[in-house]
C-alpha cells in the first residue's frame, strides 16, 4: 500500500467516526496533524508540494511535470498556470473569526431538527484538516482566480462581491470553496445569458476586458490576463463541468449543495456548524473518490516527501 493511500484511509476513518459521534481522541488529532505536514525541508507550500501533486495525478492523468516557482509547484497547462489550493480555509486567521462566533450566545437545540450546538472538537478537526491532502484542489492562477477566491465577500441581500482595495469589509472573508463555486455558477450563467441576449463575439468581450484592465475599473478586474482566462473558462459550459474537472465531483446534487451553501455568510453557530458539516462531507467524498480512482488506474504515487528527489524531479522556472 502506498503512503498516500494509507494517509487517505486513516483520514477517512477519523472523519467518518466524527460524523457518527464516535470519540475522537488526541491521538486521532495528532494523526491528522502529522498528515497535514509534507515533511519537506524546502518549505514547499503544502497545497503545491510534491506530495500534493502525487495526489492530484491520481485524479488527472493529463498533468505533466510541474515547474518549481518560488515555493510552489505549478502546472503550466498551455496558456494557463494551475496550482494547488486549500479549498476550505481553516488557517489561524480564519480560526480567530470562527472562535469569535463560538463565543456568541448558543442556539437552543430544536427537538424537531435536532440542530446541535457547534462542537469545538469539530472545529479543531477542521483546523487539522486545513493542510490535509483531502483539502487540496487545483485552481487556475493565471488571471488571479486563486486571489479572487480569497477576496469574495457578501454585500446587500448576501450578493457575492469581489472585495477590492480599501477598508476591510465588515464581514470576514473566509476564503470558502462553497462561496467560490457559487460565484463560478453565477459568472458562467451570466456569460451564457450574454451570449444569447446580445450580438456577441468573443473579440468584443476580450477587447472590453483589455480596456477595463487599464482604466479606473482596473482594481475590479485585477491582472493582465483577462483574454487568456476568458478563453480558458470558455471550455466550461456550467459549474458542473468546471467542478468535475477541478474538484473531481460528478455528483450534481453535491455541487448544488455547495452552490446553496455559498450563498449564505457564516454569521452564527448554526451557519458555522453547517459549513463544517459541508467540509467534512466534501473531504469524505474526495477521499472515497481518490481510493476508487487509484484502484481503477493502478497508479501508485511516488513518495514526494524526499527533498533531494523533489528538487531534482521538478524543473525551475
Your description of this structure?
- This protein is an alpha+beta fold.
- The protein is built from 13 helices and 6 strands.
- The chain has a 4-stranded antiparallel beta sheet.
- Strand 5 and strand 6 form a beta hairpin.
- Helix 1 crosses helix 2.
- The radius of gyration is 20 Å and the shape is globular.
- The C terminus is likely disordered.
Briefly summarize what is shown.
The protein is of the alpha+beta class and 317 residues long. The chain has helices at residues 3-19, 26-35, 50-59, 92-102, 120-128, 145-149, 177-197, 202-212, 226-233, 239-246, 252-262, 269-297, 307-313, and strands at 67-69, 72-77, 80-86, 136-140, 152-154, 160-162. The protein has 13 helices and six strands.
